Amino acid sequence: MHNILLQLLDEGMITDSKGFKVSFRNALVLMTSNLGVREVEAMRSSIGFDWKNKQEPTFEEMSGEIHEALKKAFRPEFINRLDETIIFNTLSFADSVTIVDILLGELSKIARRAGVILNFDNGLKRVIAEMGYKREFGARELKRTIKQRVETPLTDLMLDGTVKDGMLVNITARSGEIVFEPCSLETTSPTTV
């Protein structure tokens, strides 16, 4: 794989196994990686004897660890062909709550196309963020949590007929559990599921 990338980055062309060439000369190639995550997490967890005075590693310290991991994983000729390496900070819990809000908004749009209106309370967003926040995994774990805890149960309620076209579903968090309250848009009394 690295040899293919070397060819692409060096010549701007890739040749497949049948000899066909594809030009990447007018393409912007972005590559992502989790290289260095283990090393940065090890920095965070190396508490030692003076754990009360231990501070979060600085961005410069984390960046240095990530660059070292990059050097271990790729040959110098590959790294030399990269125009730029951009290192992102890990997501904070507040970032996770914002991401949950965005992902639930996307789910709400999908449900609306099926004729179902979803209402999420702010407490739910925080609970989902708490369930899915894993600093080392980023936003993917939040997506998984929403799929498992909101999307799949909601789909089951739609498939069994509990939630139908023209209904409102209030989705809240109570005692750390996610509660679905479907009700007809004509009535105001929800049924807790």
Question: Describe it for me?
Answer:
The chain is α+β, with helices and mostly antiparallel strands. It has two domains: 2-79, no CATH class; 93-184, Helicase, Ruva Protein, domain 3 (Orthogonal Bundle), CATH 1.10.8.60. The chain has seven helices and five strands; from the N terminus they run αββααααβααββ. The protein has helices at 2-11, 37-45, 59-73, 76-79, 93-113, 122-132, 139-159, and strands spanning 13-15, 21-23, 116-120, 167-174, 177-184. It has a three-stranded mixed sheet with strand order 3-4-5. A hairpin with a 5-residue loop joins β1 and β2 (21-23). The model has no long low-confidence stretch (mean pLDDT 86).
Compact summary:
The protein is α+β, with helices and mostly antiparallel strands and 193 residues long.
Secondary-structure arrangement, i.e. CATH architecture of the largest domain: Orthogonal Bundle
What is the CATH class of the largest domain?
Mainly Alpha
Output the radius of gyration: 23 Å
**Helix-and-strand structural type:** alpha+beta
Number of domains as seen in the coordinates? 2
Strand content: 5-15%
CATH T-level topology of the largest domain: Helicase, Ruva Protein, domain 3
Provide the helix percentage. Answer: 40-55%
> Overall mean pLDDT score?
86
